[in-house]
Amino acid sequence: MTGSARPHQYCPPFDQLDALERLRIRAVDPAGFTLALPAQVITQTRGLEITDPEGVPIAHFTPDRVDGTSATGTPEWLGNPSPRPYERLYLSPAQVRATTTDKTLTVVVDRRLTRKDVAEIRSGSTGRPVLLLVLSGPTMSPYSRGIDLIRRSLEVARGLDSAKVVAVPLDPRIAHADPALQDEVVSAYAPGPVAWLGPHPTSLSGTETMNRAGASGGLVLFFTGLSGSGKSTIARSVREAVLEEDGRPVSILDGDVVRRHLSAGLTFSPEDRETNIRRIGWVAAEIAYHGGLAICSPIAPYDSTRNAVRAMTADRGGDFVLVHVSTPVAECARRDRKGLYAKAQAGEIQDFTGVSAPYEAPTDADLDLDTSSMSVEEARDAVLEHLRERGHLRSAGELEWMI
Fold it and tell me: Which residue did the predictor score with more confidence, 328 or 44?
């Protein structure tokens, strides 16, 4: 496979890379396996070579196994993917079964273990070895939520008489959405009885409360709306309230400020608008990954780009809250101190959102705030209350001890 005969290379999304890895280590039945392909992937005559995020070839589908929209069956395996954190724990079902017996209790770890979980595992495993089977996907993402699960599981294992930890290339969210897949993978590993943790307890406090809504405890609070809708004003008001009431570190990524620094040189074409929002999203997701709160307030006119930011945040273990500031365009134009709407209506500004460029109002917003019918303080309080409900801010009752 050299020169002109080399097949087209493609790096799939993280969930598909995990699916391929499960196939490679024989954690699933290869019958009926399908890898969905985007339209731009060229597969005719040359087949398809799959790479990991670092460009390492890991699998090859021959031309007869690809049809332009999908690749099916078992590929030719070209090698192992690049090492992941805790690579030594990613064993195949065959390797696990070779070192366990039917007396081993397999505990499926699909969320962070609590003290109550550990006590129940200890009481239920008397006289028998324990296998902590960690659903650790997306395993090839540098921001896998599974790393925290593995780390905690190793701590727990050290406190048990006879326990080992094995990492599995399966995202808990995918497992919960596809119980048949979850059962197939767990059955491939488990040599004996299986225990499940069940839903995460809701009566948490302290650090656990702050981590409930996202594995990292971080948050991307994303405001979208027309120019002049009030989103930047609300965003600043929320930031000030969080800093005063809770003390959490807060970073604010305002559309105009980002344009002057992170996205200097970009135009307002649809392509550059998307690039600008993706840059904002990447920075915000990094902040959330490290447990911080990032507040973003760009116009973000396209639904697909907002969804991309949501996905970036989820990949890094953060929570994503979308707030649509739905102030009508007439009111936005009335408030306009810079005269931008008038210039756009006169044709002096091209691609101006709400006048000469489209705005796709979100249908999946967590909050909808119209500042033509509510004050900034009311909008701020609505956002703060939503963040408290999602576990990102302490409630008033939790603050009483400080007064």
Answer: 328
